[in-house]
C-alpha cells in the first residue's frame, strides 16, 4: 500500500515529520489488512530512507521534524568537520559533506542546542524510527547498511566513530546501537497497536529492525546489479567485502560513489546515488506542467521526439551526490526555445535523470 507524505523544502532544508511516517504506516497496514480478522501476521520487518537525523527523548520526539538525507543546510558545519578532523575525515565511511549525518548533528548542536539537549538519542533512518515506535521506545538501533551512509561509521572497523563525534564536542552516547538487519527486537504489543492505531492482526507479531532501502532493494532484486528509482535513486552492484567498513575497490575513492555495507556479512554494495531522480518527475509535474499526474507526464513525454529538440534538463534540484558531490548544485532547463512545449519539458525531465545515471 502506498501512502504519500509531504516534505518541507524551505531553502536547502528538506524535512519530514516522523509522526507522519507513523500515520502512513497505520494507513498502509489498514489498507492491506483491514482490521486483520482472520489474518495471521508472523513478523513486521522495517525498511526506509537512510541518512536522516531524528532526535528522540524518552518515548517521544524532541524535534518535530527530521532532517532528511537530501537536506543540505549544514554546509558551514561540513567545513567545520573537515577542519576539525583533517586527513582523518577519510577514515569516515561515505562522508559526503553537508549531506552527512555528522554535519547535520553539528548543525543541531549549533543552531538548535535546546532541542539537542533534550535528546536521549538520535535515530538515523525512517525505518529505525518506526522500529523504535513499534518497540514501545525500547529499541534505539541502526542497521549496518544505514550506518554506512551517515558519515559516522569508521571505515576501518565497521563500528561508529566516537573519536570523530568527540572531536566536534558532540556526545557519542546519543549514537544508536548497531544491529544486524535480521535482529529480533521483540514483539508488537497490544498497547503499541492501540497507541499507534494499527490493525489488531499486528498484535504479537515478531518485530525485526530490518535495513535501509538500499539494502532492502538489493536483497529484493535478487541480482548482482540493478537500478532503483524513487524520490532519489541509484545504480548499484553487490561484491565481496575485504574490510570491515566496506569493500576495498579503488572506485570507492571516486566522487559520488557510496561503498555501503550489505545486510549480509562479507558483502558490500557499490552505489552511485542521485539525490533526486523520480522526485524530478514529481517536481516537474507539479511545478512545470501545471499539476498533471505522473501518468499524464508520461503521456506528454511520449509525444516528444528523443532529444526534445535540443532541450536539456539538469536534474540537480536539491543538490547532488552522484555523478558529482555538490550540495549547492541546482537544476536547470537549457537551450529553451519557442518550439518547446509541454511534451518536450516532460521528456527532457526524464531524459535528464537518465543521462545523469549514464554519466
Automatic annotation (TrEMBL):
One of its GO terms (biological process) is carbohydrate metabolic process. GO terms for molecular function: kinase activity. Residues 12-220 form the Carbohydrate kinase FGGY N-terminal domain. Residues 270-358 form the Carbohydrate kinase FGGY C-terminal domain. Transmembrane segments: none annotated. It comes from the Eukaryota. Keywords: Kinase, Transferase. Pfam families: FGGY_C (PF02782), FGGY_N (PF00370). This is Glycerol kinase.
